[in-house]
Amino acid sequence: MNNLSAFLKANSLTMGQAARTLGVDKSMISKVCSQTYHEWEQKEREVIKALQDKGYTKSISDQLTVDTNILVKTRSVSNFFALCDDLIDPESTLSSSLGMAIGTAERGKSHAARWYVSEHDAACYTLYVDGFSRVQLLRNVCQALAGIRPYHFGTCVATIAEVNRVNRHLLIIDEADKCPIHILEMLRGINESCQVPIMLVGEETLKGKIDAIPRLKSRIRKPVCVFEPLNPVDVSVYYAASCGVNLEPTVAENLFKRSRGGFRSLVNDSLALAKISRASGIPTITPAMLDKLTA
After folding, report:
1. Rounded to whole angstroms, how far apart are CA atoms 274 and 279?
2. Which of 7, 114, 175, 184 has the fewest beta carbons under 10 Å from its own?
3. How far apart are CA 295 and CA 282, in angstroms?
């Protein structure tokens, strides 16, 4: 049976387009693609059949293709989602409602954050860009949260408070390790004054900044989520989900070593291997292909 991610790719459909075509929530499509939907295999068959009935009948070619828009539910990702769920839960306390997720580059933090937002309407994602002023950051937050970009700091704060008063939301601030202390202090103030939980995502230096300021450290929800390196099992799961390929254990181990536990390197290698596969006409990944990859 064709898997849904590959079927969408073969028919040039995004998850959003498929959802609109079938009149369903995008979150359902994304959960089926990531195999996190309850009884996802049955739902996958139903969705593919429904799309075929709508005229999308292209099948997956015999050549290896890669769908990078998938989520590998590693232990780190599961812990991140659990922390976000805890923060966004209306029944959860707003005391210590600053979450923190840290890890070195390439661990898949941003990918997990964006995926969580795609599945939860009450979560929004904002990337902090080095050099942003308080207003620039909050305007982007308001854009993600309410679809508007107020010009003034006070109006931004009022907008965040008003939206959150109706329904608790979660603000995810990515690359928060780049935030200067005064920005982190401002976010603490937003967290308290607007009663809105905030998830700070960044590299390990973020923890050092937070720990150095007691009034920030005391507001961090435990446990802190640490994104660990990928392991060979994660590599195998990624290739099965993104390419429909069951890797030999030695191949998975070698790809793991090449990635050094980094998600971005893993994705880049999969795209390169797909090109090698198409050139060779072999719809799988062999040890010989790895030799070409390292050449």
Report:
1. 9
2. 114
3. 19
DSSP summary character for residue 177: G
Domain 230-295 maps to which CATH number in 1.10.10, 2.60.40, 1.20.120, 1.10.8? Answer: 1.10.8
Q: Tokens at residue 56, please?
A: 């999308």
- Which amino acid does the sequence have at 186? M
* Residue ranges per structural domain of the chain: 1-60, 75-226, 230-295
C-alpha span between 31 and 41 (Å, rounded): 11
- Per-residue pLDDT reduced to its tens digit, 38-73: 888 889 889 988 998 988 876 655 557 787 888 888
277's torsion region: left (phi>0), alpha (psi -120 to 50) or beta?
A: alpha
**Phi, psi for 194 (deg, rounded to 5):** -95, -5
Helix (H) or strand (E) segment spanning residue 165: helix 153-166
**Could you tell me if 287 and 251 are in contact, meaning their C-beta atoms sit under 8 angstroms apart?**
yes
What are the E-state strand segments in 65-197? 98-102, 123-127, 170-174
Amino acid, res. 189: G
Cβ contact 45:1 at 8 Å: yes
Q: What are the beta bridge partners of residue 220?
A: 98
**What residues contact 280, with CB distance under 8 A and at least 6 apart?**
289
Q: Do the Cβ atoms of 84 and 123 come closer than 8 Å?
A: yes
Q: What's the rounded Cα separation, in Å, for the pair 33 and 249? A: 24
Q: What is residue 72's three-state secondary structure?
A: coil
User: Does domain 1-60 correspond to CATH entry 1.20.120?
Assistant: no
In this structure, what token pair is assigned to residue 194?
A: 């607007």
| Lookup: tokens for 142 | 């308001």
| CATH superfamily of the domain spanning 75-226 | P-loop containing nucleotide triphosphate hydrolases (3.40.50.300)
Taking only the tens place, the pLDDT of each residue in 210-240 is: 999 898 999 999 999 999 999 999 999 888 8
